[in-house]
Amino acid sequence: VLEANPAHVKGLYRRGMAYMGNGDFDEARADFKMMMKVDKSTESDANAALLKLKQKEQVG
Predict the structure, then answer these.
(1) Which single residue of 14, 22, 29, 36 has CA 20 to 30 Å from 7?
(2) Angstrom distance (rounded) from CA 59 to CA 45
(3) Which segments does the entry list as coiled coil (predicted)?
(4) How many angstroms separate the first and last alpha carbons of the chain?
(5) Given phi > 0 = left and psi -120 to 50 = alpha, else beta, which region is 23?
(6) Tens of pLDDT along 6-58?
(7) Cα separation of 38 and 24, whole Å?
(8) Long-range CB contact pairs, 40-45, < 8 A, 24+
């Protein structure tokens, strides 16, 4: 989906969550930030994902 439409919010969220699950924190952060840039209405979801990401980074 993201190859055809790099600004697909749901795709960005899902890929970001997959990156986070694999420990690819920088890539996950980039996707969550792109979500907010593309669609301001996703800001609360993206911020929640970024908070979860930060917690995972601290745990290691």
Answers:
(1) 22
(2) 21
(3) none
(4) 30
(5) left
(6) 999 999 999 999 999 999 999 999 999 999 999 999 999 999 999 999 999 99
(7) 21
(8) 42/9, 42/13, 45/13
